[in-house]
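Today's session is about reading a structure prediction critically. Students often jump straight to the picture, but the first step is always the sequence itself: look for stretches that repeat, for charged clusters, for runs of hydrophobic residues. Only then move on to the predicted structure, which in these notes is written as discrete structure tokens rather than atom positions. Here is the chain we will use throughout the hour.
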Amino acid sequence: MESPGSVSRCPVRQQRARWERKRVCTARELLETERRYQEQLGLVATYFLGILKAKGTLRPPERQTLFGTWERIYAASLELLPYLEEGHWGPGLEGFCSHLDLYTQFAANAESSRTTLQELLKKNKRFRRFVQLQEGRPEFRGLQLQDLLPLPLQRLQEYENLIVALAENTVPNSPDYQQLTRAARRVSETAQRVHAIGQSQKNDQHLLRVQALLSGRKAKGLTSGRWFLRQGWLLVVPPTGEPRPRMFFLFSDVLLMAKPRPPLHLLKSGTFVCKALYPMSQCQLNRVFGHSGGTCGGLLSLSFPNEKLLLMSTDHEELSRWYHSLTMAISTHPELFSSHRSQKS
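Below is the predicted structure for this chain, in token form.
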């Protein structure tokens, strides 16, 4: 017969005890944060969405763009919370997964929501005064509407962390193990899709900004469909003569070299003229010098079928970042970048 001491030292039982402690802590955190999340969802639904509907301050399309699937996300939380409070983690979370598409839709609308809010606050005096009045309510604890709108996307990341941890710390013979495992997988897949959508939206912002910096007939449509990686000044070292500063824009498939317009140009001051476009699929990259640390900068050699570029920087760290980005553009297949767009669509 085993003594109590030998049982307590059993590795299997000790591991199960650790799992159970982590599971209890994770479950408690999930429940407590869901209550707070639901409260904040409800505040926006009541004091913004509900009143805006009643007053007609915004046209329905504006309201829809601003809040997206907020009300349905709130309803999904109202449905989930009783399961969590009763300890029915598996059924509750697996049922909640049927609403995950609301978060994908919300993410796809996030950039439109952000720009719509900025425009309305700037141009619609009645809406601006309404928002200021509602934000001043003590229930919001100093939070502004722009702070609250990203809440569902932040919560999705919390869902992933907590539900995965809950599944990992549930013993396989538990009644809700399979349900938690399926829920963890589906939430993780949704979080990945939402992350890809966010990356694509950031890229779209970069492309619009870069396109605005380029002028001239050659610049039209240059950034369309591309994935932005890096931009910055580098010195082009010619076979003879002094190095010339040029602005470079690196995309997933091409390196664009541009020259600044004269500061006194009447219409295009502050923009750049596209001088050359280099296909990264045909590039051979080498460091001429600047392999080790230091303050002396370095030199990169980029060889293309019909031309060779020598690019110099006096900043060693900046040159290293360029080397890393160029290497990624050369070695990464374009379809990997375009997959972000397929997630968005």
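Discussion point for the tutorial: The longest helix spans residues 11-55.
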